[in-house]
Specification:
11 helices; 284 residues; 7 strands; Rossmann fold; oxidoreductase; single chain; alpha/beta; 45% helix; 7-stranded parallel β-sheet; SDR_subfam_1
């Protein structure tokens, strides 16, 4: 038997990156999967987001495990759309046991309009709230909610809102604030749900080897001395983020944590901030 055998799991932002890896890992461990992704670009986010073909490919990867999968193109900012898509998915799958609220964007760059702040915050925090609150009606004792925060957001909170702007611009500030709110929201949610034996925990990764990290806006944040830095330039400074001498963690490293929190191995673990950060929070 797999570690999440027989469970039905919702993963948002599941078409590629961390979300896809979480979905595949959970399916390999026995879960049936519901995948949501916007499958379109979002204004002010300069790197391309997933496409419908990415969602299709993610479904095929899940199916290789022999488990069921259903998917929908959903913008997590739209509560009504999330509710409708989830109702259809739960009707097809029969139940919902685990929510992995993973969808997120990180629009970086100086001189961005305030819309970049709003879009980052709306996707990264409001989207988490919409996902979780739409799911609550289906969850029963033993269910697990896993939100995805960011060590970078926690470090920005320690530095203060002025420092959080830095070279990141309005979009980066919105991202950091959203991740800080996710942390506080998840802990408050855990306290509310514990009498129902439903758990809520937040995973805080450091840099992760995904398209969110590999784009010029992110490279520029780590190499503000260069006009058009590339990956090789950023790789020289990426390790400064972590305590361990590595540039980033892999999506699989985060998936291990997600799988643990989704499984009954963590049946009495709730209200935890699980940092997959290679010592970044210790360093700073």
């Amino acid at each position: 038997m797999g570690r999440v055998d027989g469970k039905v799991v919702l993963v948002t932002g599941g078409a590629r990156g961390q979300g896809r890896r979480h979905a595949v890992r959970l399916a390999e461990e026995g879960a049936d999967i519901i995948l949501f992704d916007v499958c379109a670009d979002i204004e002010h986010n300069e790197y391309a987001l997933a496409r419908p073909e990415d969602l299709d490919e993610a479904c095929r990867e899940v199916e290789k495990s022999g488990h069921r999968v259903t998917a929908a193109a959903v913008d997590v900012r739209d509560r009504a759309a999330v509710e409708a898509a989830l109702a259809a998915a739960v009707a097809e799958m029969g139940k919902l046991d685990v929510v992995v609220a993973n969808a997120g964007i990180c629009p970086l760059g100086l001189n961005q309009p305030i819309g970049a702040f709003a879009n980052a915050f709306d996707v990264d925090f409001v989207g988490v709230v919409n996902t979780v609150h739409a799911a609550l009606q289906y969850l029963t004792a033993g269910a697990s909610i896993v939100t995805v925060g960011s060590v970078a957001g926690l470090l920005a909170e320690k530095a203060g809102p002025g420092a959080a702007m830095g070279p990141q611009g309005s979009g980066g500030a919105g991202y950091n604030l959203a991740k800080q709110f996710i942390d506080k929201y998840t802990l408050a949610l855990a306290a509310q749900l514990s009498p129902l034996s439903i758990r809520a925990n937040v995973v805080h990764p450091t840099n992760v080897n995904t398209p969110m990290l590999h784009n010029e806006g992110m490279y520029k944040m780590f190499r503000p001395d260069l006009e058009h830095p590339g990956v090789d330039d950023a790789l020289l400074t990426f390790p400064m983020m972590q305590g361990m001498p590595i540039p980033y963690v892999e999506p699989e490293d985060v998936s291990h944590a997600v799988c643990y929190l989704a499984s009954d191995e963590s049946r009495y673990v709730t209200g935890v901030q699980l940092k997959v950060d290679a010592g970044a929070s210790l360093k700073f």
